[in-house]
Every structure is written in structure tokens, then in C-alpha cells.
Amino acid sequence: MLIKKQKLEGTYVVLEPLQTSHTKPLQEAVLDGEAFNLWFANVPKPEDVPCYVEQAIVEMEQGDIAYAVISKQTGKLVGTTRYYNVDQINKRAMIGYTWYANSVKRTAINTEAKLLLLANLFEESDAIAVEFRTHFFNHTSRAAIERLGAKQDGILRNHQIMKDGSYRDTVVYSIIASEWPAVRNNLLSKLQRN
User: N or C: where does the chain have the smaller number of CB atoms within 10 Å of the terminal CB?
Assistant: First the structure.
């Protein structure tokens, strides 16, 4: 499985491989809603975005791919998402590090971004599974992952130590290749209703 580092484009959104020129627009996007104040989310503070972008670029050299999410309607950068822990031997990857400006939440942006990412994995890269992980208390993220059609695999208890010292229970979800046609139809149906 080889995931190409390329731009992905739909009707509502463009996913561009992350680069340093996206730093300032990401700093502006993260201020919309201030998700960095959520104790259970790993969203960077505006002053931490340059380091966040630099680290993502380093990880892209090791096979992960981070994207700037750009609204086609406004042309503005509205968030970020990425493939990470890409496992070429076992044909699987994780999708995460996803956050958006508050103004585009519950719009077609996330639905189409996930459609593009999943289609690229299952149809272009021959993946057999994709995994999503989130904090047990991030109910918004959990609901969004479940709306995609992902199934919960389990909960990793005391999986990570958060910045505030609390322990994170991580909820693990996945979509496997045989489920992809139904998931794709579900996402296309959601987009048609927009």
C-alpha cells in the first residue's frame, strides 16, 4: 500500500499537503471556536501552530500525510486532518489530528474531507482497514466518527497522559475494506442532502 502525497479535491473542499505557508491561516482558523481550550482535545494553541506544522512536515517524510483543509466556497483554510501511523506492510492507516474552525463544523466540509481520504485509501491505495481514535470524553468527535459509519473496536484504558496530567481513555473505531462501499454510499447521501 502506497499513499501518494497529493492534493485531493471535491465539490466543497480541497485537501492540500501541509506546508509552512499554511501556518498563518491555520493560526487564524484555530482561533475560530478556540478548540485548543477543550481539555480532552489535542488542538494546538495559536502560538504552537508553527511547531505543530513543522512536526507534521517531519512526519510526512516518514510516510504520514498531513493536509490543510480549504473551503472551496470561501477559499479559506478552515482546519487540518491527516493520515498517520501508516502501516504499508499491513495495508492500514489511521485518520486523525482533525480539527476545524467552528464556523464550518456540521457542514459538508468534514463529510467530504473524510470521503476523499477514505476513497484515496480504499480505492487508490488498496488499504484493508482505516482506524480512528479519540478521547473517551470527546463526545462530539465520537458522534462524528460514528456518523461516518465506523464501528467501535474498543477502548484503550489509560492509553495516554494528557498535557494536564490526566489519563486519556482512547476509543478506537475502524472501517474495513468490505464495509467501504456502504460507507461511501452513506457519505455520498449525506453530501447530496447538503
Answer: C
Q: Which residues does residue 171 pair with via DSSP β-bridges, in sequence order?
A: 134, 155
* pTM, full prediction: 0.94
Q: Which CATH class is domain 8-193?
A: alpha beta
pLDDT in tens, 145-179: 999 999 999 999 999 999 889 999 999 999 999 99
What residues does each domain of the chain span?
8-193
189, with CB counted inside 10 A (0-12, 13-18, 19+), is: exposed
| Residue written as grid cell 481539555 | 39
Residue 136 grid cell = 473517551
Reported for 180-186, long-range contacts at CB under 8 A and 24+ positions apart, including other chains, are 180/118, 180/122, 180/123, 182/149, 183/118, 183/148, 183/149, 183/150, 184/115, 184/118, 184/119, 186/148, 186/149
| pLDDT tens, residue by residue, 23-62 | 999 999 999 988 888 888 889 999 999 999 999 999 999 9
**Which residue shows C-alpha cell 468534514?**
110
